[in-house]
Amino acid sequence: MRTGVTPGELVSDEAILAAVAAEAGWMEELLIRLVEAPTVLGAEEAGQTVMEEAFLGCGLETRSVRLDGRALRDAEGASPFTWDVEDKRNVVADWPTGDGAAGGGRSLILNGHIDVVPPAAEELWTHPPFRVVRDGDWMYGRGAGDMKAGLAAMTGAVRALVRAGYAPAADVQLQSVVEEECTGHGALQCLLDGARADGCVITEPHPDHITVAQVGVLWFHIDIAGVPAHAARASRLGFNAIDAAVEVLAALRRHEARLNEDPPPPFDAFEHPINLNPGMISGGDWPSTVAATCTLSSRIGLYPGQDPEEACAGVEAAVAEAVAASPRLAEHPPRVRYDGFSCEGSVVDKGEPLVQTLSGAYGRLHGERPAVEATTATTDARHFIRMGIPAVCFGPRGEGIHGIDERVSLRSVVESAQVLGLFVRDWCGLVPGRKE
Amino acid sequence: MRTGVTPGELVSDEAILAAVAAEAGWMEELLIRLVEAPTVLGAEEAGQTVMEEAFLGCGLETRSVRLDGRALRDAEGASPFTWDVEDKRNVVADWPTGDGAAGGGRSLILNGHIDVVPPAAEELWTHPPFRVVRDGDWMYGRGAGDMKAGLAAMTGAVRALVRAGYAPAADVQLQSVVEEECTGHGALQCLLDGARADGCVITEPHPDHITVAQVGVLWFHIDIAGVPAHAARASRLGFNAIDAAVEVLAALRRHEARLNEDPPPPFDAFEHPINLNPGMISGGDWPSTVAATCTLSSRIGLYPGQDPEEACAGVEAAVAEAVAASPRLAEHPPRVRYDGFSCEGSVVDKGEPLVQTLSGAYGRLHGERPAVEATTATTDARHFIRMGIPAVCFGPRGEGIHGIDERVSLRSVVESAQVLGLFVRDWCGLVPGRKE
Q1: What is the pTM of this model?
Q2: Which of A113, A218, A230 to mutate: most B Cβ within 10 Å?
Q3: Which single residue of A84, A192, B205, B342 has CA 20 to 30 Å from B221?
Q4: B280 with A293: Cβ contact below 8 A
Q5: HEC profile of chain B
Q6: What is the pLDDT of residues A270-322, one digit of tens each?
Q7: Which tens digits make up the pLDDT trace of B339-380?
């Protein structure tokens, strides 16, 4: 605390926990509306409209932070992208400081992303992925866990405090951002727009732990050319691009194995921290034609401290290894393209006040402190950290993230919101809200 | 010759060769129109309209033989199919016998297919695949060789004889059929419609040889299920359907190797007669999601005498081999579907009068007899052979069949038509055409 308001003085734990618990129904309703908005890449706006209404429902004013493709392309920490972003916006709400807050408390960004990954295979879901189904404590749907529950929790926590008559002693900004799942350019645009704070909590589905370190991620797309011919003469005249993709993938798997041989801390805690994922493949146009082309789109992790350029070089070396082993591949060298994530890993020190304060808030609700962990995924935290803003992830309990029958524990949504309520008090300070 | 007209008596070689050569420009014009009609599966009608006009331009009456999905599904020799065929037709022209033809000559079907395979990779073509480009003797375009040149040659041969005042001494039917590249159901429908003859020549791009034996072909589609998860946890939680497809393909390649170990005659003339072709692959929906599904569509050959059911069993055994070697695959056994070709191989005896007569006609133009060969592909010939009608393939010189920059030699189109003109005389007999 820099000055002024003493945390905990004005508001008791019990008052905060009760105020947030009273918003359980509101958070659940918000979550249903969010999940039923199928906010895959390019279709984020349906969810942003819901978030705009939710922020208004907290008594906050909202504004749009529109994505600016040109500014993003020039920005440090940006990833390459080939799609149009001009119609996209983040929705931001500034929660104004209250009476007697001058100079007091630490400012905060609460951040969540509205975009979701596609359903993976809709036919494998028990219920349609964008229709909410409840079963006891679980709510099912794509994005329920990752991370609309987090958006509902952070918004519910703020709403509870506002309705109880409190305001923060330092600026709090709520951000509902786009494109976390492919570039992080929603969060980056907020920073380009001037967002700054003493700390940032991203309410990703990281339950019962605070995430302080994350890998970087590289997306790469390999276009492989074959020599098409009639299948009847495949072995004499043709060179099948699908077979060639298998050779390239084998070389990439060898590269992945090498990267996992001796992980640096804190990633030595993982058996296999760097995951290569051949996420999409598409090749050929007729069963009786030797496949002329095959495109393999993959994701691979990189350790903090490693430049994404190095990761690109590693991928290209693996492809070159496949080419060196195959005269036919050498005749038509595969082309590596970058589109989407090309981002560094990041680490926040466990001793940071942000981590300690959030950990303490968690401990006051749960009786013990949460684990402090690393993740083998990336999150928008890196953009804040790059700007010198400590950022961690903490949020509700989701399962089936990027999988089938994704779900979130509704109790964990309320509990996450309660922890956030305590944390806002402890980090920012709470003062009486201004009378209009 | 059974009776009546003695072949060669009425018309000299020279007269036929000159009459057909005079149609070279007409054939080329027809071929341009045919190639520029992009008659891929489902879009055949644009080409059938051209063929209808071409048959009318020979002074023949035409009729449509519409595909009947229900009848085809029940027919012997049919392949499974999941698409709609009710709007498709073959275009047929009957060339009526002439004066004094009663009981004379042997009847004939001249058959070609209007459908073409897709361009494999349009961006690899020097010129757009459905825009004709001429370079010296070569005409470029998808379908130029396979087999619109054959349609032009057979039609040009008949037009030349009609315009010279001749008619056959036995029934001749010209057939422009659909779906040769996926089921052969166009040709099969003509047979269900009652088409019969003493022999059939299919003007496929089989230059300087007569094809008397062919493999069967099986198309099969393998749906492989993975366990999607976040790529960050791929190695712990996920099972990637693209990796699984690689395992299945490896087992299929081992199956293919076994099939090529000891080929029966006449396929022992080939180093590798049975080609497995993984022609199309599609899997996954997001680079950072472990692929939930992957579908591999392949083609494999089978030897004459082998039932397509056996080929299915062989494929399924190969898939089972992959499953047995992979506990993760065993949890989600791949599903094999059949859609498209499921057809037997076929053989015509080299001593058949049809082969000898066509060989003789070729020899009269070229000074030596053509090779008599087997092919590692299938053609519509099998449907005629199954009905007891000897059927062979012979036609123009095409290159890049099912490949890039497909082309056909225009001189070979004229020469093929000349051979067909001589052959019609020798097989059917020629008599004066009827005066209207």
Answers
A1: 0.95
A2: A230
A3: B205
A4: no
A5: CCCCCCCCCCCCHHHHHHHHHCCHHHHHHHHHHHHCCCCCCCCCHHHHHHHHHHHHCCCCEEEEEECCHHHHHHCCCCCCCCCCCCCCEEEEEEECCCCCCCCCCCCEEEEEECCCCCCCCHHHCCCCCCCCEEECCEEECCCHHHHHHHHHHHHHHHHHHHHCCEEECCCEEEEEECCCCCCCHHHHHHHHCCCCCCCEEECCCCCCEEEEEECEEEEEEEEEECECCEHHHHHHHCECHHHHHHHHHHHHHHHHHHHCCCCCCCHHHCCCCCCEEEEEEEECCCCCECCCEEEEEEEEEECCCCCHHHHHHHHHHHHHHHHHCCHHHHHCCCEEECCCCEECCEECCCCCHHHHHHHHHHHHHHCCCCEEEEECCCCCHHHHHHCCCCEEECCCCEECCCCCCCEEEHHHHHHHHHHHHHHHHHHHCEEECCCC
A6: 999 999 999 999 999 999 999 999 999 999 999 999 999 999 999 999 999 99
A7: 999 999 999 999 999 999 999 999 999 999 999 999 999 999
